């Protein structure tokens, strides 16, 4: 007799889960090293899209995928534009500096709220030079 209630319970649970707020999708991130000189401390402009409500800042990191080297980054306030301006990563940022040849670099961007909780994350990869 209990099995008759199982479909109804599954339906109620399914409807409850379906009405829960969904987690934000990943951020879209894009950038270009065009015009950047080797070992520059001036970060490129980074475009961020699909920014969730409640975002107050972006945490940004650059990593060399071919040398497993972290090039730092920083935290930048979100001004509503979806653009992290060129040069915004002031302290702790070291631009791409491959010892020879071309390396792959990835920017990781996290959207954080006023409590410093991550709301969404995204990344973009590009070769330098």
Folded structure, characterized:
The chain has 129 residues and is mainly β. Helices cover 11% and strands 37% of the residues. The chain contains one helix and seven strands, in the order αβββββββ. A hairpin with a 4-residue loop joins β3 (57-64) and β4 (69-77). The longest helix is centred in the N-terminal third of the chain and has 14 residues, at 5-18. The protein is elongated, with a radius of gyration of 20 Å. It starts with a helix and ends with a strand. Mean pLDDT is 86; it is low at 5-23.
Task: Indicate the topology.
Layout: H1 5-18, E1 28-31, E2 46-49, E3 57-64, E4 69-77, E5 83-84, E6 103-112, E7 118-128
Antiparallel strand pairs: 1-2, 2-5, 3-4, 3-6, 6-7
Structural key phrases:
single chain; 129 residues; mainly beta; 4-stranded antiparallel β-sheet; 3-stranded antiparallel β-sheet
What is the straight-line distance between the termini?
70 Å
**Low-pLDDT runs:** 5-23
Mean pLDDT: 86
- Biggest sheet: strands side by side, in what order? 4-3-6-7
Number of helices: 1
| Strand elements, count | 7
If you compute it from the alpha carbons, what radius of gyration comes out, rounded to the nearest whole angstrom? 20 Å
Overall 3D shape: elongated
The largest β sheet comes out as: 4 strands, antiparallel
Percent strand equals 35-45%
Helical coverage, percent range: 10-25%
Task: Give the gist of this structure.
By secondary structure, this protein is mainly β. Helices cover 11% and strands 37% of the residues.
């Amino acid at each position: 007799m209990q099995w008759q209630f199982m479909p109804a319970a599954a339906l109620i649970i399914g409807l409850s889960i379906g009405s829960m707020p969904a987690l934000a999708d990943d951020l879209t991130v894009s950038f270009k090293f065009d015009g950047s000189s080797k070992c520059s401390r001036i970060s490129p402009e980074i475009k961020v899209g699909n920014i969730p409500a409640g975002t107050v800042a972006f945490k940004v990191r650059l990593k060399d995928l071919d040398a497993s080297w972290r090039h730092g980054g920083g935290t930048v306030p979100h001004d509503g534009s979806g653009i992290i301006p060129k040069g915004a990563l002031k302290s702790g940022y070291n631009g791409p500096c491959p010892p020879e040849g071309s390396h792959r670099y990835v920017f990781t961007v996290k959207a954080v709220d006023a409590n410093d909780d991550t709301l969404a994350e995204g990344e973009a990869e590009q070769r330098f030079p």
